[in-house]
Amino acid sequence: MTPVHPLGYRVNEMPKKKQAPAAKPSSEGTKPVGRETARAPKKPGHVVAAAAKPSAPSAKAPSAAKAAPPAKAPPEEPAEAVELREPARPARRATAETMATRQRDISVSEFFTKNRHLLGFDNPAKSLLTTVKEAVDNSLDACEEAGILPDLRVEIHEVQAPGSKGEKGEKTNPNAPIRYRVSVEDNGPGIVKPQIPKIFAKLLYGSKFHRLKQSRGQQGIGISAAGLYGQLTTGKPVTIVSKTGKGRPAFRIELRIDTKRNQPDVVSDETVEWDKDHGTKVEIELVALYRGGRTSVDAYLEQTAVANPHLALHYVSPKGETMDFPRVSDALPREAQEIKPHPHGVELGMLLSMLRDSPGKKVKQVLMDDFSRVTSSVADTICAMAKVSAKAFAASVDHEGAERLHKALGEVKLMAPSASSVVPIGEELLVEGLKRRFKNAFYVSTTRPPSVYRGNPFVVEVGLAYGGDLPLEEPAEIMRFANRVPLQYQPKACAISESIYDTNWKAYGLTQPRGSLPVGPLAIVVHLASVWVPFTSEAKEAVAHYDELMREMKLAVQECGRKLGAHLRAAERAASEHKRLGLFQRYIPEVSAALGSILGSPADKIEQAFTNALPNFVKLAELEDKGNGGGEGGEGGGAGGAPSDPPPPPSSMASMDSQPPPPPAGGGKGKKKRAEQLNLI
Ligand SMILES: Nc1ncnc2c1ncn2[C@@H]1O[C@H](COP(=O)(O)OP(=O)(O)O)[C@@H](O)[C@H]1O
Ligand SMILES: [Mg+2]
């Protein structure tokens, strides 16, 4: 008997070889059904059902319909049945055995060669930024870890202009992609020679991944990925010069990455003279694009200077322009303490490997040694809650026991992790940083107390610059930072931006179109410092939306907004008082002269009496407030862009300065005094 297919037709009627290609696309849903079925007219019924579909767009459909008139079609067979039948038994393409011959390890370098966009190398402009960023971030991390005030030199030179002469004098292709040579030099601790190849030519190799300590890098993939990109696009090796101390030799090493093995190949290795006590210089040649704007290298360096007041930076752009940022603070950031994971943030898998990796240790000991804030009594409580013996060997705890321990770790009452592991910029230095970039503005800043997300401590801080040279009519300039590193891409996907958009800036005296950024001469800095920054991807472009982070960010933005609002209100009051003062000063001489002639007294005496009484009519305190920039925590030359910016004080004010301090203005007391003084006249 002919076997019957579960879908209802006999197996020997199934489309054979010829129909197979038609079956594939229709099964994938990529081609119109009519066209495919029209090409497979073996079973007339199928063809008719498909051709009868009014939407069948194929030119072949009518002829197919002709070949198989509708009258012959089995009425109970809808068009869909054809689709179901066609892919019924695709030709066997591979077996488990043939597939097994192709299955092998994928080296991480091979993976990122294909997926370099994941690391920020998805277009030439971004690749230039990422390369500079990885090298600069490493230099800053290394200097801070070694307790050295960083002195960096960043240079980018174009090495192959389109249409220019090649290396041997030959004319190059005018459409050839532009190559740049990026060079980043630091005065850090240097790198010991045997480590250099692995650091720069092996992906996933670094000193920061396995520890919980605040730093710019964390994955051990940054600089080697930049070298890999350079090698892929230009074929040139990465060059490193490094020296670890006075009197020690400096090494110059050229490296390539063997992508198949994810291992370094040393191209050349020599000892060189370097007039520097210690430091590292990295040079990478790459295909790239240099351009300006928010996501440019220049913007990155400018913003890095804002968040790192202790950095001295010299930059030579591909156009030959230089940018110098002299150091504005000699205070190195406090050293971040390394911490252990907090029990409230631990995941089950992590707990399981902690237990398994502690042979010979008791459960209680593992809890106390491997977690922060777990004292002896807390460990006992956790074990009791989990019904796991504190004295049991950690490696012998079964899966259910580990699950109960995990639950107890999440529920036990504990102190928050130590905040000493997080190093914010600080309110004062954030203002110093802002001053580096925005001159003559009004500045405010706020550093929130430490908080915790998923067991990781973090601190949010916000700084604002208002007025000065900032444009009056444009949306506020936003600078996002994570562990002092500027984030320039993906603003819409970032929790930091959301905290700014979500704030009602109108309440602080600014205009804000619905759902947009505030408009005005304003720059906003938000910095998130944490032992582990939750980025949305490996390219470290945007911060994930954890509730705890969002809450702290909003609070910090609001706190700064309130300070700015208070300043703007004071500035407005001062402006109107200034106007009043101008009016009085204009009419006092005239009125004094008229009164003098009526009363027969000398006009200058009357004028003096009026001038003395002025503090009772004009709130001079507010004028002074305005002059000092006002606002808590803020300083600077006043709100340059504040509405109705008053003119400079008239020269007659100088005489008032020598007067005794004016009595407090306003109120009943002021009125009484005013009356007394007028009586005098
Ligand atoms: N300029 C430098 N000076 C000293 N050490 C460096 C320097 N650049 C990189 N390193 C070391 O190389 C490691 C790997 O760097 P990288 O690949 O960028 O990964 P990550 O910064 O995420 O650890 C760093 O962890 C650091 O120990
Ligand atoms: Mg790095």
Structure notes:
- With 681 residues, the chain is an alpha+beta fold.
- It folds into five domains: 11-85, no CATH class; 110-325, Heat Shock Protein 90 (2-Layer Sandwich); 343-411, Helicase, Ruva Protein, domain 3 (Orthogonal Bundle); 421-565, Ribosomal Protein S5, domain 2; 576-680, no CATH class.
- The protein has 22 helices and 15 strands.
- It has an eight-stranded mixed beta sheet with strand order 5-4-3-6-2-1-7-8.
- Strand 10 (451-453) and strand 11 form a beta hairpin.
- Helix 3 (44-51) packs across helix 4 (61-67), helix 11 (297-307) packs antiparallel against helix 16 and helix 14 crosses helix 15.
- The chain is globular and about 120 Å long.
- The relative contact order is 0.07.
- The site of adenosine-5'-diphosphate (ADP) has 21 residues, from helix 8 and helix 10.
